[in-house]
Protein: beta-glucosidase
Organism: Lysinibacillus piscis
Amino acid sequence: MRENFLWGTATASYQCEGGWDEGGRVPSLWDTYLHNNQLENGNVASDHYHQYKEDIRLMKEGGHKSYRFSLAWPRLIKNLEGEINPEGVQFYHNIIDECLTNGIEPFVTIFHWDLPQYLEDIGGWTSRRVVTAYEELAKLVFSEYGEKVTYWTTFNEPRYYVFSGYKIGNYPPGVNDTQKTIEASFYMMLANAKAIKIYKDMNLKGEIGIVHSYAPIFGVDDSLETKIAMRNADNYFNNWILDTAIKGELPIDMLTRLNDKYDLSFIQTQDLQDMKENTVDFIGLNYYARALIRPYSGGETVLRINNSGSSAKGTSKVVVKNWFEQVWDPNSEFTEWDTEIFPQGLYEGILMAHKKYGIPIYVTENGVADYEDVSVEQVNDEKRIAFLNDHIDAIIRAVEAGADVRGYYIWSTMDLYSWKNGCEKRYGLVAIDWEDNCKRKPKNSYYWYKKVCESNGEMI
Ligand code: BGP
């Protein structure tokens, strides 16, 4: 691997910080939604808000070169009038400084889903006003941290956020409305372009990208019908983020299709111009699994409710009416949470992205969830080690085949709050003992990954 390859781990503010009502933080839409529905929430999460120094110390000791984390908008800007919260601003200075002092490269996500409730109240991402609010946030964080941070991403997984919140409706704001899904998706991609423009205009030294929930597309056979279904699925899962962010163009065949049924009049010519002129320097790919596609065979749309737990073991299917169907190979291996384990998908997916776009790639999330008893001194997470080993091997093979991959981040640094699945869904290299004041206990995988980082991947 290249000399300065960024070996790291990743978190997101809402999922790890806790301190939800401390330091002047205002509620996010997740606080409101989880509190109102009396669901397990991130009020405490991994207590990173108080224990970040210990976490960064563990990263250093664990050989990490970089830490991917996100900035909580509700900590930074308090209201619609744009009032800045100095305590929140200072908190991220502290995290960034602690990283830099310990030789850890901060890799910062501006938005990882915790939209302030005051913005949700005016329509959330379906409102053009939120794009302006995001621009104000971008200006603030670039001027505060821009001299210290080299790696920026505008959004974490716009597709996953929008589909879960506006189409499937199992994440806040809990809506099921295709028109709103289209609007929210578009405004996020517009906000991405606007933030890139702000960043470039400030002449800062770093790079800026976007993080996508990547579903590399595989077909059940080589027929023409399957190839057409694969193209539709690629538009649905990937292209409207990746083509828009990298090439500055929404996929025209997708727009044409949507235009037949939905109202696209909210899109202004200037928006398309902004997207065309402001594209990313690199792409962040979060990889958990591939999408296996076959042609649409009839019936109404059926979506898979993500995070509904483990049961189907690959027997369910997704139908997107008149577009495609997604199926799972029942002979594959699945995690306890019903995600297919398919490292080859990462290898092929990286090469697909490399061939199509040719810009630097960071694998910004990859990991596996399990149920674990953390009352023991050191969790023996062999399954995780095997999973990570096979996925890192896939990246190394992709690099050998010519792809420009510059970093890899395991999800997650420590156990944290998993959206809607709470804290029993453990992804961390470091266990959090919620029964013992969020005590940190490195797992076997932590010590294994230390060797990977220190040998720059040679030990795989
Ligand atoms: C990604 C998100 C992360 C994280 C991860 C695991 O989509 O960017 O925030 O949650 O998936 O997903 P989950 O916690 O739902 O299992």
Observations:
- The CA atoms of residues 212 and 242 lie 8 Å apart.
- Residues 178-201 form the longest helix (24 residues).
- Residues 12, 15, 156-157, 160, 213, 286, 307, 365, 369, 411, 418-419, 421, 425 surround 6-O-phosphono-beta-D-galactopyranose (CB under 6 Å).
